[in-house]
Amino acid sequence: MITENNINIELEKLFDNILRKSSIRPPIEVGKNNDLISDFHSKCEKFKDCLKEYLTNNDKILAHRVRSRLKVIQSLQDGIINCLECFLTGDIKSAYDCFELMLKPQFISRHIKNICIPLTEMCNSQRPLFRVRKSDRPLSTRKDIFHIPFNQRHLVRAQRYSVAGLPCL
Fold first, then answer.
1. Global pTM value
2. Bridge partners of 161?
3. Count of C-beta atoms within a 10 Å radius of residue 36
4. Which of 1, 39, 61, 115 could tie 34 with a disulfide, CB 3.0–4.6 Å?
5. Rounded to 5 degrees, what angle do the CA atoms 70, 72, 77 make?
6. CA torsion angle 150 154 157 160 (round to 10)
7. DSSP assigned state of 167
C-alpha cells in the first residue's frame, strides 16, 4: 500500500540525489565565465536532468507526480529567465510584472506555501532583520544610521533597497 509517508521517503531520496550534484547544491554561485542568465539556465537543465533520470529509473507514484510537473518547472524556468532579462536591461517594472504573471496561475500559486519560509521564522524578536549600508566615514549619530532623506537616496543606491529608494529587508 502506498502511503504519504512512502512518497515523502522517496521524495527525500530524490532531493538527496539532486543535492549530491555539486553544481546545483546550495549555496549556488554563478560559474566562472558565465553570465547570470546562462548560468541559471544551465543549472535548471541539470536539475531537470536529475528529475528525468529519476523518471527513467522509477515507476512509482512519485515518478508520476514529478512527470506531471515537468511543464510547470519549465514554465517557472522560462518565467524567471524573462524576469532576469527585464531586470538586467533596467526594466524593473516589467521584471516585477513578469514575476507576478509567472506566479499567478493556480497550479503554481497553490504550491508557493510549500516552498516559502514564513517571515516570522526569519524575523522575530529573537532574530531581527536589519537594514545596512556601507559608508566611507563612521556613522556617529542614530539619525545617520537609520534615516536617509528621500532627496539623498542616491547616496545609498541599491545598498538597502531592491530598487533605489524603496526599502527592503
1. 0.67
2. 167
3. 13
4. 39
5. 95
6. -30
7. E
On whether the CB atoms of residues 61 and 14 are closer than 8 A, the answer is no
Report which of residues 102 and 139 the model is more confident about.
Answer: 102
The rounded distance, in Å, linking the Cα atoms of 86 and 98 is 8
What contacts 4, CB < 8 A, 6 or more positions away?
Answer: none
| C-alpha cell belonging to residue 125 | 524578536
3-class DSSP state of 163: strand
What is the amino acid identity at position 160?
Answer: R
Dihedral of alpha carbons 154, 160, 161, 166, sign: negative
Q: What is the CA radius of gyration of the chain?
A: 21
Per-residue cell: 86: 527585464
Taking CA atoms, 119 is separated from 97, 102, 112, 123, in Å, by: 23, 22, 14, 6
pLDDT digit string (tens) for 44-62?
999 999 999 989 988 888 8
Task: Find, among 101, 102, 112, 47, the residue nearest to 76 by Cα.
Answer: 102
- DSSP class per residue in 82-133: HHHHHHHTT-HHHHHHHHHHHH-SHHHHTTHHHH---HHHHSSSSS------
